[in-house]
Design brief:
By secondary structure, the protein is of the alpha+beta class. The protein contains ten helices and 17 strands. The strands form four sheets. The chain has a nine-stranded mixed sheet with strand order 9-6-5-4-3-12-13-16-17, sandwiched between helices. The chain has a four-stranded antiparallel sheet with strand order 10-11-14-15, with no helix packed on it. Helix 1 (27-41) runs antiparallel to helix 10 (257-273), helix 2 (58-68) packs parallel to helix 3 and helix 7 packs antiparallel against helix 8. Keywords: Coiled coil.
Length: 342
């Protein structure tokens, strides 16, 4: 059965039951590409890949450490990063861990390297980028328990940039007698949300400065890069190409054409592994088996796979999970087993 096909199998009592869809594990194909890249650079290589629905989390650090166990402390690492982002604190911890193994780190960013993944890239001595590459702004948004809610009653995120722009517009358009914008703003955004956003913005700048400090000594340059990435872009997802990244003061190099092709092929294989693997039970229930994140080096691949039922609760108008057995899976040659993190 192909991974994307839905099939029914007959049980012993003659009733039909649904066979859960399983995404492919393309270990042999990805390992061939990784060996080619390591042969090209004559250095260690690690892939850190996240799907568009993933988020950098604390468990990623533990998995990275497991990947590094087989590595000898070496002078140089080439790190392939593709991720939509997540926790900036995780980016700092990953850089700290990698720096305990390698004196020089080169990030290979052939495609999306966004938000907290940009923070991770900032910890490298060199960032190699190609025609599809982009970094993004790293300003922080907060989804607070007291945040405003949208039409579906979901909490919405609030960023420092958004608040600054609202205050700026108020100052431009306010009437002469109006002196304080907060009286009106507090009707829509709780005061504690303002405080949480300000705190998160300060944290983002602190994290960025600390990460850059692993390979930069010029404090003025560190502050300039950090402040620009945190405050100077009109959108969090603004694509920063190689040209603009170099203008900011980052050490940008052009990705070699051969390596670019290998990394695009590797990205395509990971994308195939991470395609949606949903099995519908009925219109209100389905099973999710999607692979979300992959870390891989020579002879070892570890990926995070969802394994849970999703149920639509009518009274709350939201999906809830059940029977959740999601976990990291470690693949080594002919072995495939769970890698538990709690």
């Amino acid at each position: 059965m192909k991974w994307f096909e839905r099939s029914l199998k007959e049980s012993e009592n003659g009733t039909s039951e649904i066979r859960l869809l399983e995404p492919p594990v393309l270990y042999e194909q990805t390992q061939k590409i990784i060996r080619k890249i390591e042969d090209f650079y004559q250095s260690d290589f690690i892939a850190y890949w996240g799907s568009n629905s993933s988020s950098m989390s604390t468990s990623d650090v533990i998995v990275l450490n497991e990947i590094l166990k087989k590595k000898k402390q070496n002078g140089q690492l080439f790190l392939f990063v593709k991720s939509p982002g997540g926790s900036g604190k995780v980016a700092l911890r990953m850089i700290h861990l990698l720096r305990s193994f390698y004196k020089r780190i080169v990030v290979l960013a052939p495609v999306e390297c966004a938000s907290a993944a940009t923070m991770l890239a900032l910890g490298a001595d060199v960032i190699k980028m190609g025609p599809l590459s982009y970094l993004t702004a790293i300003d922080t948004s907060v989804t607070h328990d007291l945040s405003p809610v949208d039409a579906d009653d979901d909490l919405v995120s609030v960023s420092q940039n958004e608040l600054d722009r609202v205050l700026k517009l108020w100052n431009v358009e306010r009437r002469e007698k109006e002196q304080n914008p907060y009286k009106d703003l507090y009707k829509y955004i709780h005061p504690l949300v303002f405080g949480a956003v300000d705190r998160a913005s300060s944290l983002s700048i602190k994290l960025t400065n600390e990460i850059l400090g692993y390979h930069m000594e010029d404090e003025e340059k560190i502050n300039s890069i950090s402040n620009h990435l945190n405050a100077e872009y009109p959108a969090h997802g603004y694509p920063i190409t190689a040209r603009e990244a170099a203008a900011l003061g980052l050490n940008i190099e052009t990705l070699e054409e051969e390596i670019h092709e290998h990394l695009i092929e590797l990205n395509n294989l990971y994308s195939e592994m991470a395609q949606r693997a949903y099995t519908d039970y009925d219109e209100y229930r389905y099973h999710d088996n999607q692979i979300m994140a992959i870390l891989e080096s020579e002879d070892r691949q570890i990926f995070y796979q969802r394994n849970k039922d999703m149920i639509w609760r009518k009274e709350d108008k939201q999906w809830i999970s059940a029977n959740d057995q999601s976990s990291w899976i470690k693949v080594e040659k002919d072995q495939k087993r769970p890698f538990y993190i709690r």
